[in-house]
Structures are given as structure tokens and as C-alpha cells.
Amino acid sequence: MSATNVQKLCETTREKLKFAIGKMELFLNQHALPQLVTEPNEEELQFYQGYLSDLRHLLVFSEMSYEKLGVALRRATFDESFAQRALYNVYHYGVNNFFYPKNESYSEDGRYAYTGQDAIRFRKKPVRPARDIILEITKSYEELRDDLNYYENDYLTEKRMQNQV
């Protein structure tokens, strides 16, 4: 991939992350565990604890990636290797953490991906704001996954081959 393409990909990736970060920050600043738990029982409490934990982790990974992409784009001379590593981290940590959250409060059901319906399925029915935030940022992470899927396989293969030569 040429340096120009990598730079343009960094710019578009950064914009998509900025959108998702803004939505997550707003949600997390306005909602806490007591506001989300409607029926105080152990199962619901554990669900929302895991949900909020996953969302906070996703926010941190996304913010770190956003900053690294900013560094790559602000340098006087564009460091293609640094930028590619930053893009790999967006995919590996951000996109994967969105689609495979540690606490599995939601997951993607690929059967719905091409039907126009929401592909995200929650383990337990969440309150409306908790559902809406995930559905609002899904499109950004789907686009990031499509844009950056190269970095999951080809980037690592390329790096391994460079080390073996």
C-alpha cells in the first residue's frame, strides 16, 4: 500500500474513531450503573457491570488509537511504518474489542448483516440508552473493519517475512 493511501486511510480512520469516541464519552458521562439497572437483581447487575466495563475499554482503546493516528498525521515527514502499526492497532484492539467484547453483553449475528436489520444481538435486553449507543457506533466499527481488514492478516505476514529475510 502506498504512503499516500496509508495517509488517507489514517485520516478516514481517525474521523470514524472521533465520531465513536464522542458518542461513547457522552453516554458514559451521562449514565452510571444505578441508572441502567431497572430491576435490582444479580443477573442484571452483572450484565450492566460487564457492559459498562466493555464500553470503557473500547473507549480507551479507541482514544489511544485516535491519538496515535494524530501523531502519525502531524509528523513533518509521514512515517508509513508507524502509521501502519497504528492502523493495525485500531483493527486489533478497537474493532475486535467492539465485535468481541470480553463480557459478551452483546455479539454480532452475521445472519442479520445483509437483511437491513441490526446485526447486534444483546445477551439480555438492555435499557434503551444502552442499546442505542451500541447501535449508533456499530456502523463506524463496521466501516473500520471493512477498511482495515488488510491489517489483520497481510500486515502481520509482511512483518514476519521482513524479519525472516
TrEMBL record:
InterPro entries found in the cross-reference section: DUF3907
Any Pfam family hit: DUF3907
Domain of life: Bacteria
Name under which the protein is recorded: DUF3907 family protein
Annotated source species: Paenibacillus monticola
